[in-house]
């Protein structure tokens, strides 16, 4: 079963390419995918009927009780035959139905096959949570299929309506499934849940109201999916979809999901009063309302749509009634409805395809022009009307027989309602065939295109299937009886002739009443038109949407003021109110004693951090606030150290340093003050709000500690880290081994964030050349602007050691040395010889230290993250000392290369163990002896950590290139800041004219900046 799902998924992904290559003929090949599911189910018939149910289990999320458990019983077997068989026929129909020049056929084919796969998973899974996953997948794919004609407003509105209604029901169903699973002791196996409920062993200690409430929630999902009142209005609107979608989703697949859910849970819950009344009210109401509305429709698809609502109501009543005989009739009707309704929808598509209209007032004489279509439609309509010997008649007769011999007053009430609904069904079935094929006086016979054999194949096969199933009631009964036997009550029978009795007499009355309604159709239409308009569910739905739109607009106007402080205040106040309320309810968990600190030094540090935070809240200058914020951050790092966590202290210090630099880089383009109006009230408000939030979080932390009843999970980390991660540094082993999946996700987010920030900052191509001093020198030489005594850095780089330097080019008195390659590109007022010399002395040591942290981090403080931050800080200092051209000399590599290489290395290190029989991200240890290093204890997690190291360096380099170098360049070009680079006439050379003459044609050089830096 899982293999079939994988085949559907692969086919759905490949469908757009296949359709693009082979056109609409690709539908014939894609039909083999759901067809394979139907063939497989047919091959399992013997085992299923013998009770040897095929079962397949694959663990997914064991902690949540979610696994891929599949089970093919009789109900699932029947649904797979319907979903796969009808799906294959409809895909074959698509090969002729769609024009060869139709657009988006690849997307349609992919969504269709994916929907078939989702339905296959839905009806075979034995896990209720997995069922919900497949349930919502069908919702998503049906949304895409219903809205296939996305350029039409009707299609878009219908798709939105369907997904909103069915998603609402799906969420309610999820809550009900979770509640039932927890009541059943945490078991989410559907078969076990239903068995426990049928045996009366479901949640013996649970509150009596829990099970009925959960059952109502599950039924909300089923009724909304099957378009039962009050959710019925979405189905007629969905007729805006292509006809193959209507034939599959609204006859054999999507709407059948709700019926399947009722049939699946009915053996265990049908004896509940809330279940029975919900099923009867919704089902019988839909049966009567749908039939009544179908009698006044002129569009053939709308007539079938309302007829579908009516028929689904009947099936839900039968399979949810809780009686074995009635359930057998319901299962038979489930199969019969899929055959005749899919055939009728496809026949409507043929009519529309041939004559260009579905309005029965404009159709006449098609029975003579399209005799094969007319015969197929007659068979399908006869089955829908319950005329012998069709499958619909056999199922309906069995239902009437079981209800007539029920013996309860409710059985007779249901029998009468079913009879009335069946009479309406006969009437609109006759209306359909008459409207589509009979000659009508005064109506011109429309010109019809010649139909192909391919487009006729599917409806003919389905209509013939309705006849064949009806002629074999005994075989149908043998196939469906095992599941019907899981219901209480006397078993029923399927037969073409049950003798003269209440059922036969009711059938005769139904046929007579239906023919009479059709014969008096004009009078019926007049009566219907005279009925007053009643505000229906569709109007309520639209009113509810308008209310939600208005409410959202009001809330948005109230909260979205364009003020970041206002947004943060709302968020923090919400935390205080909600979390504070929870804290008040946990007052009994307050610990017996609270230790304020381990040493007075911790209290002193906390006081400094609090004072700095208070001053941040009251600060008006941005730079002052950032520096004070840095004091708080370094104070927290000191607290880590005093608490005995040097690794965390090191990481916090490095992160705080990089963050401080990033803040300062951004502040260069922001005003010096937060506001031009120094309002003391707002500053005090910020301080008070921050203090209250801090107190709230602190109190919740203390309460959470007091409420703990189990041993912390961190207690096992030391042993786990050493035994499985082969390291003594618990923090680093946790990052690269114990919680490596989290780290993998985090570095992926880092790569995405860095890419996003750079894309917002860069005006030129981010993947272009790197700013280097040699390029700037070449550009200045071309423009002749190296004058005024300024040295040429490129010449300095080219000068042989020991050669004489003119006095005007001396950088440091008495020495002919260039400390930083890009230093000479800076304007004199930007240079610091002490800074350049000091950086030259420590830069390489910082890089070596970063590598040391990388290699030692598994057993000592450090690791890839800390090492990458140290290397990043080295690049930051290099940029601060020498400017953006010095950054290019220090790291002549694009940040994207480092980010991508790091992510690739980390992912590769995680996948390699799986290729040699291990698990993803599994670590192993290698002990080797090297000549100089001696015994080396190497854990393979080092390769994963190296990927983290490269990602962090790439992130810092990307920040420097975007928020640093690129902001510098843009500021100079716009004239918003004094130029950092040294040249005599900045108006003569554009800063981005950097490539050497042989790397770019003269016409490709950018236009010089004429006013940016004066």
Automatic annotation (TrEMBL):
Residues 607-671 form the MrpA C-terminal/MbhD domain. Residues 63-108 form the NADH-Ubiquinone oxidoreductase (complex I) chain 5 N-terminal domain. Pfam families: MbhD, MbhE, MnhB, Proton_antipo_M, Proton_antipo_N. It comes from the Bacteria. GO terms for cellular component: plasma membrane. Keywords: Antiport, Cell membrane, Ion transport, Membrane, Transmembrane, Transmembrane helix, Transport. This is Na+/H+ antiporter subunit A. Its main location: membrane. It is found in: Cell membrane; Membrane. The chain crosses the membrane at residues 74-98, 105-123, 129-146, 158-180, 205-224, 275-295, 302-321, 327-351, 372-392, 412-434, 454-476, 496-519, 566-587, 599-618, 625-642, 648-667, 687-707, 747-765, 837-856, 862-881, 893-916, 936-960. Residues 790-809, 974-1014 are annotated as: Disordered. Residues 834-957 form the Na+/H+ antiporter MnhB subunit-related protein domain. One of its GO terms (molecular function) is antiporter activity. The keyword Magnesium does not apply. Residues 687-761 form the MrpA C-terminal/MbhE domain. InterPro entries: CPA3_Na-H_Antiporter_A, MnhB, MrpA_C/MbhD, MrpA_C/MbhE, ND/Mrp_TM, Proton_antipo_N. Residues 127-414 form the NADH:quinone oxidoreductase/Mrp antiporter transmembrane domain. The keyword Transmembrane helix applies. It is a multi-pass membrane protein.
């Amino acid at each position: 079963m899982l293999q079939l799902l994988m085949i559907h998924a692969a086919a759905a992904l490949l469908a757009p390419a296949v359709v693009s290559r082979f056109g609409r003929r690709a539908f014939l090949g894609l039909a083999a995918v759901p067809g394979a599911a139907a063939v497989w189910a047919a091959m399992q018939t013997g085992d299923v009927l013998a009770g040897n149910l095929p079962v397949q289990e694959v663990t997914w999320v064991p902690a949540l009780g979610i696994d891929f458990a599949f089970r093919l019983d009789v109900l699932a077997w029947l649904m797979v035959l319907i979903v796969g068989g009808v799906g294959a026929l409809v895909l074959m129909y698509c090969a002729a139905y769609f024009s060869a020049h139709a657009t988006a056929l690849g997307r349609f084919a992919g969504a269709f096959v994916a929907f078939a796969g989702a339905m296959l998973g839905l009806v075979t899974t034995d896990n209720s949570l997995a069922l919900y996953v497949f349930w919502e997948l069908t919702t998503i794919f049906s949304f895409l299929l219903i809205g296939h004609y996305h350029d039409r407003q009707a299609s878009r509105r219908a798709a939105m309506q369907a997904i909103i209604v069915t998603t609402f029901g799906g969420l309610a169903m999820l809550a009900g499934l979770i509640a039932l699973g927890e009541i059943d002791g945490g078991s989410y196996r559907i078969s076990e849940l239903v068995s426990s409920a049928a045996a009366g062993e479901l949640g013996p200690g649970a509150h009596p109201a829990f099970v009925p409430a959960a059952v109502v929630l599950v039924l909300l999902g089923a009724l909304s999916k099957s378009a039962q009142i009050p959710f019925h209005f979405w189905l007629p609107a969905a007729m805006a979809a292509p006809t193959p979608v209507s034939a599959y989703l609204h006859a054999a697949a999507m709407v059948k999901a709700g019926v399947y859910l009722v049939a699946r849970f009915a053996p265990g819950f049908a004896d509940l009063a809330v279940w029975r009344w919900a099923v009867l009210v919704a089902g019988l109401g839909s049966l009567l309302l749908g039939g009544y509305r179908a009698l006044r429709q002129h569009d053939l698809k709308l007539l079938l749509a309302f007829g579908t609502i009516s028929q689904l109501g009947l099936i839900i009543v039968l399979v949810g009634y809780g009686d074995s005989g009635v359930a057998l009739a319901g299962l038979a009707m489930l199969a019969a409805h899929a055959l005749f309704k899919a055939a009728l929808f496809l026949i409507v598509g043929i009519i529309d395809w041939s004559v260009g209209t579905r309005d029965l007032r404009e159709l006449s004489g098609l029975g003579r022009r399209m005799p094969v279509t007319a015969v197929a439609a007659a068979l399908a309509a006869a089955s829908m009307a319950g005329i012998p010997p069709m499958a619909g008649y056999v199922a309906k007769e069995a239902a009437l027989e079981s209800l007539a011999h029920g013996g309860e007053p409710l059985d007779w009430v249901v029998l009468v309602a079913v009879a009335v609904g069946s009479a309406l069904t006969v009437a609109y079935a006759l209306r359909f065939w008459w409207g589509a094929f009979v000659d009508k006086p005064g109506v011109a016979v429309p010109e019809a295109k010649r139909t192909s054999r391919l487009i006729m194949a599917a409806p003919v096969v389905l209509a013939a299937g309705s006849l064949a199933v009806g002629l074999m009631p005994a075989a149908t009964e043998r196939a469906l009886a095992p599941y019907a036997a899981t219901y209480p009550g006397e078993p029923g029978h399927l037969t073409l002739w049950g003798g003269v009795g209440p059922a036969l007499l009711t059938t005769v009355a139904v046929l007579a009443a239906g023919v009479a309604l059709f014969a008096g159709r004009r009078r019926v239409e007049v009566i219907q038109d005279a009925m007053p308009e009643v505000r229906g569910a569709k109007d309520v739905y639209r009113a509810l949407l308008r209310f939600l739109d208005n409410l959202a607009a009001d809330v948005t106007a109230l909260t979205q003021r364009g003020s970041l402080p206002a947004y943060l205040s709302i968020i923090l106040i919400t935390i205080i109110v909600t979390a504070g309320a929870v804290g008040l309810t946990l007052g009994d968990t307050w610990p017996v004693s609270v230790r304020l600190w381990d040493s007075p030094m911790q209290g002193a540090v906390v006081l400094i951090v609090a004072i700095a935070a208070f001053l941040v809240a009251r600060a008006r200058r941005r730079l002052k606030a950032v520096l004070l914020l840095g004091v708080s951050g370094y104070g927290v790092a000191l607290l880590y150290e005093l608490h005995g966590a040097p690794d965390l202290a090191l990481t916090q210090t490095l992160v705080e340093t990089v963050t401080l630099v990033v803040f300062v880089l951004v502040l260069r383009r922001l005003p010096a003050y937060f506001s031009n109006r120094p309002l003391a009230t707002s500053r005090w408000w910020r301080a008070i709000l921050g203090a209250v939030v801090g107190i709230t979080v602190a109190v919740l932390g203390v309460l959470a500690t007091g409420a703990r009843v189990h041993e912390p999970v961190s207690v096992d980390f030391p042993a786990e880290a050493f035994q499985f991660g082969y390291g003594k540094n618990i923090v680093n082993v946790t990052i690269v081994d114990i919680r490596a999946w989290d780290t993998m996700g985090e570095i992926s987010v880092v790569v995405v964030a860095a890419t996003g920030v750079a894309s917002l900052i860069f005006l030129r191509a981010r993947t272009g050349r790197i700013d280097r001093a040699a390029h700037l020198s070449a550009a200045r030489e071309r423009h002749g602007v190296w004058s005024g005594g300024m040295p040429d850095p490129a010449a300095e780089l080219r000068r042989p050691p020991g050669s004489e330097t003119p006095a005007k080019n001396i950088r440091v008195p008495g020495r002919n040395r260039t400390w930083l390659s890009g230093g000479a590109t800076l304007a004199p007022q930007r240079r610091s010889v002490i800074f350049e010399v000091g950086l030259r002395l420590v830069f390489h040591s910082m890089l070596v230290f970063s590598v040391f942290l990388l290699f030692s981090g598994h057993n000592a403080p450090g690791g890839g993250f800390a090492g990458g931050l140290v290397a990043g800080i080295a690049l930051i200092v290099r940029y601060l000392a020498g400017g953006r051209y010095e950054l290019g000399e220090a790291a002549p590599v694009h940040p994207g290369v480092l980010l991508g290489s790091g992510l690739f290395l980390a992912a590769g290190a995680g996948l390699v163990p799986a290729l040699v029989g291990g698990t993803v991200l599994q670590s192993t240890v290698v002990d080797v002896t090297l000549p100089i290093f001696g015994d080396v204890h190497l854990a393979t997690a080092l390769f994963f950590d190296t990927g983290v190291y490269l990602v962090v360096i790439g992130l810092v380099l990307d920040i420097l290139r975007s928020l640093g170098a690129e902001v510098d360049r843009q500021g100079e070009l716009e004239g918003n800041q004094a130029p950092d680079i040294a040249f005599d006439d900045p108006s003569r050379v554009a800063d981005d004219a950097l490539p050497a003459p042989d790397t770019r044609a003269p016409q490709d050089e950018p236009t010089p900046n004429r006013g940016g830096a004066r």
